[in-house]
Write a structure and sequence with these properties.
Largest sheet of chain A: 7 strands, mixed
CATH architecture of the largest domain in chain A: Alpha-Beta Complex
Structural class of chain A: alpha+beta
Number of domains of chain A: 2
Oligomer: homodimer
Strand content of chain A: 25-35%
Distance between the termini of chain A: 46 Å
Largest interface: A-B, 64 and 62 residues
CATH class of the largest domain in chain A: Alpha Beta
Radius of gyration of chain A: 20 Å
Chain lengths: 240, 240
DNA sequence: TCAAAAGTGTTCGTCCTACACCCATGA
DNA sequence: TCATGGGTGTAGGACGAACACTTTTGA
């Protein structure tokens, strides 16, 4: 590669980033969408994103576009993760656009506001994220699948939680993303048995549902991998 | 994104693909390297790759560049998998180059030959793949890590095997990539207990080491995921 | 008859699952 | 005192690790 200053080096490629920003609101998975203010797909909803600037990496561009288009700047606890790059010819009607897609996880969900090239920005329930512009439906589905898979063998789930959280909240994160119910006692033991997954906040306790016993409060630990993994139930596991 | 035909759409970005092609030769992991025939890094070794053409996706470009630079065309059993995209400014001394990296797995290893912009192409033992051009050392390490991780919960390992193989060969694939020894009886049971991982070739049997009992022959099955996963031993599992 | 490699059996511990049960709080 | 959610205990089963043992081949 990069063998010369030949014609290929100057083909009109555009490089963009697209972000599938996920969060949990009222116990449901939400995704951050923007209404396009420009053609093509003007008025349609799409994932936030935009062109790379000459001096920035895709990760940097992702954070900048998020701030510009949705007002979510300096968001604490934002977890950015490269998903994959979509490069099929024809995915943009005008020209060759190669897009580096990111999955992003956010704990509490600040209200966004449109900006830059986005007419509006809004949290939309994942199930109601209707047909999106370009191939963004697929990017969003890929992001969901990736996040669900990473929940099994990484500590990624804490990225959906505020700095301090209860085990019940963490369990809700799993249940919402996986769409399955988990056994509370077992979930609890599993999490606590994994060193570095969570660490207790000494004296703290908090009421969660208004009623009930106050729950102990935890912080995200330093571990990133889960060994052994926390496998989601069912799938085609046993029914051979 | 793509809001307008503005200046960013015409920034001089080059888009390339890079391939970390892995195979097993004589029980050791090898990677396919090319000697660069052009500046920069002329005479240095690098991963094969090159510029995207205007009408092709990154996956298509990866296969084309592999054929052009190493002569490996129409390779049966080639498994291509997008690794991630490297976009840091300065990773190419001349200009902005965004590179979509792939990990590729190949069963038997045909001899490559240089071509296109590559002065030479060669299989190099993974451990001896000295300092490479650009950030290719990192890409190669990322590919190895990714492949090792995917061995745990996918059927990817069969991509290193010829169409028909024995369980002993499959086990060697795991042991080589992970760098650990596995218990043969347990490995055997685990693989056979996973429906769709491998399927027996009815009457076939083959001698492997010259001596010993002939081994039953298997083909790759239709499954892609491994449930439950086949975890590599040790790591920081138990020693809490 | 020995070495080497494939394949089978068995034991034992660990982890997962499932539930039953107790605790603390607000209404 | 009841509903609600947090937290503990425990019996049973499935799975994995370790290793002994048998089988089949070439030398």
């Amino acid at each position: 590669m990069l063998q010369g200053y030949d014609k290929y080096a100057h083909e009109p490629f555009a490089v963009t980033v697209d972000l599938a920003v996920l969060t949990l609101r009222e116990g449901a998975l939400h995704v951050l969408l923007v209404e396009r203010g420009q053609e093509p797909y003007r008025g349609h909803w799409a994932l936030p994103g935009g062109f790379l600037h000459p001096d920035e990496s895709a990760e940097t561009a992702a954070r900048r576009e998020l701030a510009e288009e949705t007002g979510l700047a300096d968001v604490s606890g934002l977890h950015l993760e490269q998903l994959r790059t979509y490069s099929e010819p024809g995915r943009d009607p005008r020209m060759r656009v190669v897009s580096v897609a990111f999955a992003a996880l956010l704990p509490d969900a600040p209200e966004p506001h449109g900006g830059g090239d986005a007419a509006e920005a809004r949290w939309v329930p994942y199930d109601k994220a209707g047909p999106l512009a370009f191939d963004h439906d697929r990017i969003l589905a890929d992001a969901h699948e990736r996040v669900g898979a990473k929940f099994e063998y990484t500590c990624l789930a804490t990225a959906f939680c505020p700095p301090e959280f209860t085990l019940g909240e963490l369990q809700q994160v799993y249940e919402t993303v996986w769409g399955t119910a988990l056994d509370r006692p077992n979930f609890r033991r599993k999490v606590l048995a994994t060193p570095g997954f969570v660490e207790a906040v000494p004296g703290a306790a908090r009421l969660t549902g208004g009623r009930g016993k106050p729950a102990a409060v935890y912080r995200a630990g330093t571990a990133t991998a889960l060994h052994p993994p926390l496998l989601r139930p069912s799938r085609e596991g046993r029914p051979a």
